[in-house]
Write a structure and sequence with these properties.
CATH class of the largest domain: Mainly Beta
CATH topology of the largest domain: Metal Binding Protein, Guanine Nucleotide Exchange Factor, Chain A
Strand order of the largest sheet: 5-6-10-9-8-7
Radius of gyration: 29 Å
CATH superfamily of the largest domain: Peptide methionine sulfoxide reductase
Oligomer: single chain
Shape: globular
Distance between the termini: 108 Å
Number of domains: 2
Number of strands: 11
Number of helices: 3
Structural class: alpha+beta
Length: 201
């Protein structure tokens, strides 16, 4: 009717739609970029010329004869690669610190002479001549075949403070070590059978 002199500053429907579509496109693009970046490894980690970390281990023949220290590349694989290589229970134990039930493992009651190697990378870990009957239901040893071949790690899971044992070359979880073993070391390396491959002498 009468012009009040006031202008209507409300955006027209077509303008509102355009702003909404542009905003949606920007948000969607930003989310896609964030997802893409989170799935992409840094360029440095993908460099094919990058030398892998090296570790020192002691090599042994299957007979148990010590060959000496060597520098070897640390074995690093993706979850998918380990899953493809290992049986499900072995994967759960060695790559995710699981534990097999007592008295169920393949080697808890094995008394044959020989060498126990890492199931993941074949590094020599324990000699059967250091194995003893602990009554726990897990293979138990009073020392590793070479201290260089295993790693001891502080473990605070399950509300306890324990010392976990891992393979030095591939970081496979092996079990735990306790200070209640027999002489001469007084230590008990309580190891999952699933983490081991036994080579009979």
């Amino acid at each position: 009717m009468f012009d009040s002199g006031l202008t209507d500053d409300r955006p027209t429907p077509s303008m509102s739609r355009r702003v909404f579509l542009c905003s949606s496109a920007l948000v969607g693009g930003g989310l896609y970029l964030w997802w893409f970046m989170s799935k992409t490894q840094p360029a440095e980690a993908q460099r094919p010329d990058q030398k892998p970390e090296e570790v020192t281990v002691v090599e042994f023949l299957d007979s148990g004869e010590r060959r000496g220290e060597v520098r070897v590349p640390k074995i690093v694989k993706s979850e998918a690669e380990w899953r493809q290589q290992l049986a499900p229970n072995v994967f759960a134990i060695t790559r995710h610190d699981d534990t097999e039930m007592a008295f169920t493992g393949q080697y808890w009651n094995n008394h044959d002479p020989g060498l126990y190697r890492c199931i993941c990378c074949d590094t020599a870990l324990f000699n059967a001549n250091t194995k003893f009957e602990s009554g726990t239901g897990w293979p138990s040893f009073w020392q590793p075949v070479a201290k260089e071949n295993v790693e001891e790690i502080r473990d605070t899971t399950l509300g306890m403070v324990r010392t976990a044992v891992a393979c030095h070359r591939c970081d496979a979880h092996l079990g735990h070590v306790f200070p209640d073993g027999p002489r001469p070391t007084g230590m008990r390396y309580c190891i999952n059978s699933a983490a081991l491959r036994f080579v009979k002498s």
